[in-house]
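Preliminary data (for renewal application), adenosine monophosphate complex.
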Amino acid sequence: MKVCRTIEEVRGLSRGARSEGRRIGFVPTMGALHEGHLSLVRAAKAECEFVIVSIFVNPTQFGPNEDLERYPRPFERDREMLEREEADALFAPDVEEIYPPGALTFVSVEELSGKLDGKSRPGHFRGVATVVAKLFHIVEPDAAFFGQKDAAQVAVLRRMVRDLALPVEMCVCPIVREADGLAMSSRNAYLSLQERKAALVLSRSLAKVRAEFEAGQRSAARLREAGERVVAGEPGARLDYFAIVDPDSLDFVDEVARPTLVAVAAYVGTTRLIDNVVLG
Ligand code: AMP
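Predicted structure:
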């Protein structure tokens, strides 16, 4: 696996592989890799002949009081994991390589970026869209692989790709969970033993909503109440949002009549966690 630090290097590799007729798959990450990330690498390997993974803790998607400084950066461990998965290239640029001094250009997916996590984290999706657009221009992938775990991110990036006619196929892979149901996340590393137990309330609240749906409940208000009640029952968690929305527009729905996104975000201690399920 080739490790690239510069735009020029990774673009050269990508163009070289394309000129040999290989399909380029791209997996953007912030590192601190876990099985969720590796599932994306495996999906990319299954569909593409040349797989590039990026590790970049993107400062523009963090708010001023968020965890940019303490976000885990176990680079050697990540590199070894990707080596074992037989990724072809790892792009791990410095911040200055991605944001040259004086950079003034951003990509903003209006409206959608202010919903769900975008509402709780102002500016977050502007940072995400900007870095992903930029990485797409650098890597020039045929297909890019994202996790359903970040469902609002998927909605924002799909819209960006459509609106800007970016020549990239968006591939979205299922949420990978721990054995007890907790959605894998690099931020799970922040949790104490006690918080780790409280964190299960997210997947539990979604399981409750799914059970009510399967028992015939279609009212979004009722389903949401059921989910919120589960979260309220866990003193170690503080609800940020519990939302039942259209997966593309992220608009609230009244009834679950077509595929519908049920998304939850909650603070466990100071750690903000998210999870979701699609019903219907
Ligand atoms: P991150 O490193 O948190 O920016 O995540 C990089 C990619 O991995 C994103 O597309 C995430 O949606 C995806 N991802 C993170 N956690 C999981 C998970 N538990 N299951 C599937 N994909 C995930």
